[in-house]
Fold this sequence. Notes:
By secondary structure, the protein is α/β, with parallel strands linked by helices. It has helices spanning 14-25, 41-45, 48-65, 72-96, 99-104, 178-188, 209-219, 312-326, 356-363, 378-382, 410-413, 415-422, 442-457, 460-472; strands at 5-10, 30-33, 108-110, 114-118, 121-124, 127-136, 140-142, 170-174, 193-197, 224-226, 229-237, 240-247, 250-256, 258-261, 265-267, 281-282, 285-286, 299-301, 340-343, 348-353, 368-373, 389-394, 400-407.
Amino acid sequence: xxxxxxxxxxxxxxxxxxxxxxxxxxxxxxxxxxxxxxxxxxxxxxxxxxxxxxxxxxxxxxxxxxxxxxxxxxxxxxxxxxxxxxxxxxxxxxxxxxxxxxxxxxxxxxxxxxxxxxxxxxxxxxxxxxxxxxxxxxxxxxxxxxxxxxxxxxxxxxxxxxxxxxxxxxxxxxxxxxxxxxxxxxxxxxxxxxxxxxxxxxxxxxxxxxxxxxxxxxxxxxxxxxxxxxxxxxxxxxxxxxxxxxxxxxxxxxxxxxxxxxxxxxxxxxxxxxxxxxxxxxxxxxxxxxxxxxxxxxxxxxxxxxxxxxxxxxxxxxxxxxxxxxxxxxxxxxxxxxxxxxxxxxxxxxxxxxxxxxxxxxxxxxxxxxxxxxxxxxxxxxxxxxxxxxxxxxxxxxxxxxxxxxxxxxxxxxxxxxxxxxxxxxxxxxxxxxxxxxxxxxxxxxxxxxxxxxxxxxxxxxxxxxxxxxxxx
Length: 473
């Protein structure tokens, strides 16, 4: 059978663009289908790029406010300037993901919705195209929970909050996950009274418990955090809204000018008519195997739509695996054991591998845990960023099974541990690397030194060495 394309990519976000560019560079004929007007996906327009621009700008305002009191009018002006800066940052990155770049690679772009007619045929807008293989990379969208009255107010999500032009005086945030917490702190630093309402026992529930607890304590100094609280209904008012909630069996309410819904993500797959291609869906996401194949072996799925890890760098990693498998015919497997992520609050949170509770359950008495408090490190003492810690877990031989930190710039200096793990090096080998003093990553080598203290200095071998030194040296 002759096909229009060797590979058709549905979705122009991080994963889809990685696949399309990679396939074209290998000489495949490629169709790239994106229903929105611009390429780049959620990360560029509603996620990583605007949020990090917002977080950095808000941090600068916050630091300035420590030395000068801003009036409400000044916060209004600063808010407008920050949002303009966010828009400029998105535009700068958009140029890198311009349509022209992909057209020049020989890729055919389709700006339309896609739906499967059968396992090799797509209806793209009003056109029909065929392809030998497909990669689905349609991303995800915000979950909007069925809260009574929510549809009566102009609620915000991560897809609309960056379009704000005027500063609200107050903001209620439904959800204490990564998106909710990052945006909450940034908004609080721009002079907005923020209240986070989280149904779980703790915010940032996927983080190590000690790290999440530390984050809760630090963030509570800047915004209001309600945990174990369920939003019951939202009521529109003339000058804003009222959020009614239940916490620990007691009813409560808060007044706010605006409300942000950050209650999770849903895979964008409903309009694809996947059943026509024999692609199975479970728990709202596309089923894939370790090679990222769906239940239809020539169709792959990468990024948020397959329910793995909802991060841009993961979508890019999966895209590389999918290219090699779909285009080159390999059977590379994807692994998430060595994939880190960062929560870009201030201070930042770094997460790699198992949490301490997960590692304890898996390794039991064979688990070694090494921890350093930032207050015991010279650089963090000098910068007055003493709140935070580093925690690394290994097995008895020093293999890294989990690493976590909360501290200023943790996303940068903790990646040294991630590199060690990716290279299959033991944690104690970090002690042999000389770090400039007083670089922040000294706290990581300081933590690695604890391995030798436990394995050598507190062991019977140390007694033998002491006897040798005292007797013969």
